[in-house]
Design goal:
Elements lengths: L1 H56 L6 H14 L5 E16 L6 E17 L13 E13 L8 E8 L7 E3 L2 E2 H16 L12 E7 L3 E4 L5 E4 L6 H4 L3 H4 L4 H9 L12 H17 L1 E2 L2 E2 L9 H6 L11 E2 L23 E4 L6 H5 L9 H14 L9 H5 L2 E8 L9 H7 L2 H7 L9 E7 L7 H7 L4 E4 L5 H14 L3 E8 L1 H5 L1
Parallel strand pairs: 4-7, 4-14, 14-15, 15-16
Antiparallel strand pairs: 1-2, 2-3, 3-17, 5-6, 7-13, 8-9, 9-12, 10-11
Length: 507
């Protein structure tokens, strides 16, 4: 009898153990399953937040920036991730029909989709008891769209940074030179933008203009023209008063550098000091002598870091010189006295009359230094920024802002300066200055019968999507309008469109 009881107890224990296996399995699956459902929902929330974030940034592409941004949102929303096994950000442009009281409206949009899979360590995993795998994957994705606000209730500041090198005199087509097509296009755009309101008030839109050769020029209140540099130089270079030395020939400066007694008397400098400066001038001149034409901006004398740190500070006045009196840098590659009064920068203005010299008085000459034009253009745009806290500041923040670079050829003769400046975050520095605006600064490039889209400096500065090459004369105006439209689309309204769940897991 006792033996039978022991056998029955043993059988009961076996049955109990067998019964507990599915019981524990049900418990494990219930607990872990609830956890993974929560993880999938959190991943859905993270994907939605990431999709909205990249859509509001609306860079128009799917570069590493978008993936990095999406990854940060996924990690913030979904805790205890073993790893992200898949993360994709894709975009497309399309349009949809939106019904309204006035009829159907075709609305363009940019759509971004964030797709993610995350791996997690299971709490309960066993080969004996029904449970999840040691590592489980959950997946989800979300889609958001940006519906841009095209120009309407927002005012716009546009600075045209325009190539005024000699090659702009070349014929383009229809009996017109490149410069004629360019200035006609700017006039047409300004006539459309700088239009007074019906009640007679002046337009609140503003246009600035920065023509460039190897340097830019300014025109002072007395009508004098000054050749100016927008980069910074080595400390030794900036010790020299180039305004003073530019009026002398290299023969005189060479003699002064060799013997202080050959130096002319100066009100504030001793002859010893004059000789020291003359030596620096000759060192710069001899190291920049290009085809026997002196040019003062060889990269060895330019301080890239100092330039970027001081983009929005006033120019060093000693690097300017009076164009009409210039003898030192008297070459076709710079602001030569033979080419004086040809072009100069115009600050932001709402008055069309202020832009008339572009079409009536300016003509191109010199070589190509787009880096000078971009920095000067940023300064002109920045000069239109009112003080924070002023009555005009809130309105200014809502303005669209566009820096539009128009060029017909490669940088010459210093083709590495622009890529070097861009590599050291020049364009990021410029954009950062306008980050307090409601609408980000848009920088665009137009190649005038030139493949600007192949130039690394421009690509790395503005991105491939913001460069347009124009080969036909009649296309320039529409291309400029397209770039203006891009600047207005940088803001827009971002809306979550939809999310996927189970069907994505099967794919």
């Amino acid at each position: 009898m006792a033996t039978m009881m022991r056998k029955q107890r043993g059988s009961a224990g076996i049955y109990m153990a067998l019964f507990l296996i599915p019981l524990f399995g049900a418990i494990f699956l219930a607990l872990e399953g609830t956890r993974y459902i929560q993880k999938q929902n959190r991943l859905a929330d993270g994907a939605e937040a990431a999709a909205l974030a990249v859509t509001m940034a609306n860079h128009g592409n799917t570069s590493s920036y978008e993936k990095d941004l999406a990854e940060k949102y996924i990690q913030a929303y979904v805790r205890n991730i073993k790893g992200i096994s898949q993360l994709e950000v894709t975009s497309k442009e399309d349009q949809t029909t939106i019904p309204s009281s006035e009829g159907n409206i075709e609305k363009k949009y940019t759509q971004y989709k964030v797709t993610a899979k995350t791996n997690h360590n299971s709490w309960f995993s066993s080969f004996l008891i029904p449970s999840f795998s040691p590592i489980e994957t959950v997946a989800n994705q979300a889609v958001a769209r940006n519906y841009p606000e095209i120009l309407g209730d927002k005012f716009v500041d546009i600075v045209f940074v325009s190539d005024f090198s000699y090659s702009m005199n070349n014929n383009w087509g229809n009996g017109k030179t490149k410069i004629k097509v360019l200035t006609d296009a700017i006039k047409q755009i300004s006539d459309e933008i700088l239009v007074s309101t019906s009640d007679g008030n002046i337009s609140q839109n503003r246009i600035g203009f920065v023509p460039f050769g190897l340097r830019t020029q300014i025109k002072n209140s007395a009508g004098k023209y000054f050749c100016e540099s927008n980069v910074r130089y080595t400390d030794e270079y900036e010790k020299v008063n180039w305004q003073y030395w530019s009026i002398f020939t290299t023969d005189y400066i060479k003699k002064c550098s060799e013997d202080k007694n050959n130096c002319k008397k100066h009100n504030s400098l001793l002859k010893t000091q004059l000789q020291q400066q003359a030596k620096i001038v000759m060192n710069v001149y001899n190291n920049t002598n290009y085809r026997n034409w002196g040019t003062p901006d060889k990269p060895v004398f330019i301080d890239i870091k100092k330039t970027i740190e001081n983009i929005f500070t006033p120019n060093i006045r000693t690097t300017r010189f009076n164009t009409a009196k210039n003898k030192l840098w008297d070459s076709s590659g710079l602001c030569s006295k033979h080419n004086s009064k040809k072009f100069w920068s115009i600050k932001l203005t709402s008055d069309p009359k202020q832009l008339e010299p572009i079409y009536n008085s300016m003509s191109p000459g010199g070589w190509t230094g787009g880096f000078q034009g971009i920095i000067k253009g940023a300064k002109v745009l920045h000069a239109g920024k009112p003080a924070q806290g002023s009555d005009k500041y809130s309105e200014y923040k809502r303005r669209l802002k566009l820096l539009l670079i128009l060029t017909d050829g490669k940088e010459y003769p210093y083709n590495l300066l622009l890529p070097d400046l861009v590599e050291n975050k020049m364009c990021e520095k410029i954009k950062e200055e306008f980050k307090d605006s409601d609408v980000p600064l848009h920088i665009g490039v137009i190649g005038i019968k030139f493949a600007a889209s192949k130039e690394s400096g421009y690509i790395d500065c503005v991105g491939e999507d913001n460069i347009i090459d124009v080969n036909e004369v009649d296309d320039l105006v529409e291309t400029i309008k397209e770039q203006i439209k891009k600047s207005s689309q940088a803001e827009g309204v971002s809306k979550l469109h939809y999310r996927y769940t189970d069907e994505f897991i099967e794919n």
